[in-house]
C-alpha cells in the first residue's frame, strides 16, 4: 500500500537542488533563523562579554583600583570583535535578520555598559543600529537608567 495516496503536499527544489516539502522548508527556515539568534547570543557571551567585563569592571566599578592590564586586554579584545559586529550590521538591519531579537537586546546591553566606560564602538553601522535599539521602549527602560548616571 502506498502511504502517499491522497496526500497533498507542496514541494520545490531548494538552493541546493534538493526537492523538499513546503512544511520542511518552513521548518528549516525557522531553525536557520533560531540558529542565527543562538550564534549571536554565543558571540556576545563568549567574544564581546569578556571584553566588556575587563573594560567596565576595571574602569567604572573599580576605578583607581582597577587592573590596567585587564583594561588593555579588554580593549584589544574589543578591537578584535567590534569589526565583526560592524560587518554584520553593515549588511543587516539587526544581527540575526530584519527584526530585533533577544540577541540584539543582549548585545545592546553590553554596548550600554561599554558606554559607561566611554568605550563603545563608534563605527557607523553599529552606532546607527544602537540608536535604533535605544528607540525601543524595552531598551530605553532597561538601559537608559545606566546611561543617565554618566550624563548627570
Detail the topology: elements first, then pairings.
Elements: E1 11-13, E2 19-21, H1 22-61, H2 68-91, H3 102-116, H4 124-134, H5 137-151
Helix pairs in contact: 1-2, 1-3, 2-4, 3-5
Query: What's the order of the H and E elements?
Result: EEHHHHH
Task: Report the principal-axis shape.
Answer: elongated
Please tell me the overall pLDDT: 84
Q: What does the main sheet amount to? A: 2 strands, antiparallel
**What is the annotated CATH architecture?**
Up-down Bundle
Indicate the CATH class: Mainly Alpha
Low-confidence stretches: 1-5
Integer-rounded radius of gyration:
21 Å
Number of helices: 5
Number of strands: 2
CATH topology descriptor: Glutathione S-transferase Yfyf (Class Pi), Chain A, domain 2
Q: How helix-rich are the residues, as a percent range?
A: 55-70%
SS content category? mainly alpha
**Ends apart, CA distance between termini:** 77 Å
Spatial strand arrangement across the major sheet: 1-2
Strand fraction equals: under 5%
Number of domains: 1
